[in-house]
Amino acid sequence: MAPWSASRSPLAVSMGEPAGIGPDLVLMLYARRKELRIPPFLVYGNLAFLKQRASGLGLSLDVVAANPTEACARFSRNLPVADIETYLADTPGQTNPVGGELVLEAIARAAGDCLTRACRALITAPVNKAALKKVGFTHPGHTEYLAELCAGGGDSPTPVMMLAHDNLRVVPLTIHVPVAQVPELITTQLVVRKARIVAEGLHNWFGIAKPRIAVTGLNPHAGEEATIGFEDRDEIAPAVALLRREGIDVTGPLPADTVFHPEHWQDYDAVLAMYHDQALIPIKTVAFEEAVNVTLGLPILRTSPDHGTAFDLAGSGEASTKSMLAAIRLADQMTASLR
After folding, report:
1. Beta strand pairing status for 168-172 and 160-165?
2. Domain holding 252: CATH number?
3. pLDDT tens-digit profile of 39-59?
4. How far apart are the C-alpha atoms of 333 and 1, rounded to whole Å?
5. Pair type for strands 122-124 and 11-14
6. Are residues 22 and 150 in the same domain?
7. Predicted structure pTM score
8. What span, in angstroms and rounded, lies between the C-alpha atoms of 76 and 102?
9. How many domains does the chain have?
């Protein structure tokens, strides 16, 4: 990992839901920054709140207000915070509207600094959608909100969720929808659009010159020549053919029960699966605490840990930092050229 440098642009870290473990992860990792060789980051959140949580965790940290130009120089001695001024008491496990407003402002400011390249990438700590909805949040989730922020008033880009661990990268075509609705959502157009974004992201962010993408089928045995469903033949196969005509190295539709065997998935740079669990079960089986959520399709890089707010662990110091650490390290690696 690259050594610290005061001349580098920092990573941006939004502190996440205040009542959850996001602040814990940020503070605990900063406390071990030298041991873990963590690259400099700037936390977007409330300075006074972070001091309270650090005290509650028994961490003696110097938490100071800073901006992106100061963050790297301060990082070895002080935890730099882009302070969002508000009063917020530290109540682990108990959400409140002020916390929801703080979360949204932190994400917006951090994304804005990434868009101007004041920061290299955005790492988002977990949020709680129910808490955000109480303050008028109408987006399906974090990712769609970021897409709107990146649009600048124009058409929102299409964000694509990837889960990554080492060389295993998976992308669900459909995400948080009932399984019963998945077949009707799978269209040639959707497969083509998302595969293009995956190919571009693998090239631009992962530095893969000619990405190789596997596309799974929806049905058992990828439909077995339409004897077990028609989606594989009628929607997925035409998409693969079109993508190959465009010069994208795509293979499929492949049976989902065999594509994730190590000898198979290592032949590809990413696997585009048809629905949430088809993509996430394999990667969570091999890297439950270390997988990283990467958002492709945006003009900025965003990573996040692959877990939620864990209210029951907030403020205890017992939450695992592995996925958050992996998210920070991956963002650092993927934006090395922006240092």
Report:
1. antiparallel
2. 3.40.718.10
3. 999 999 999 999 999 999 999
4. 8
5. parallel
6. yes
7. 0.92
8. 26
9. 2
- Distance from the Cα of residue 245 to its chain's centroid: 31
Sign of the dihedral through C-alpha 2, 168, 194, 306: negative
Whether 24 and 138 map to the same domain: the answer is: yes
Identify the helix (H) or strand (E) that includes residue 183: helix 182-185
Q: Which residues of 37-63 are buried (b: 16+ CB within 10 A; e: fewer)?
A: ebbbbbbbbbbbbbbbbbebbebebeb
Are 150 and 43 spatial neighbours (Cβ–Cβ below 8 Å)? no
**Is the distance from CB of 49 to CB of 88 less than 8 angstroms?**
yes
Query: By 3-state DSSP, what share of the chain in percent is helix, strand and coil, each rounded to 5?
Result: 45, 15, 40
Same domain, 67 and 125: yes
* Strand ranges inside 84-185, DSSP E: 122-124, 160-165, 168-172
- Candidates 146, 141, 136, 142; CA nearest to 112 is 146
Measuring CA to CA, how many Å separate 80 from each of 41, 61, 106, 108, 122? 8, 11, 14, 18, 15
CA dist 150 → 62, 136, 260, 336 (Å): 32, 20, 33, 21
* Shared domain check, 178 and 139: no
Domain that holds residue 226: 167-285
Residue with tokens 């439909």: 223
Q: Tally Cβ neighbours within 10 Å of residue 187.
A: 16
Cα 339 to chain centroid distance, Å, stands at 20
Per-residue pLDDT of 168-190, as tens digits, reads 999 999 998 999 999 999 999 99
Q: What are the distances in angstroms from CA 169 to CA 190, 272, 275, 293?
A: 19, 9, 14, 10
How confident is the model over 286-305, as pLDDT tens digits? 998 889 999 999 999 999 99
Who's near 17: CB < 8 A, 6+ residues apart? 95, 99, 103, 125, 126, 127, 128, 131, 309
Q: 3-state DSSP call for residue 72?
A: helix
Q: Could you tell me the two tokens for 287?
A: 């890297």
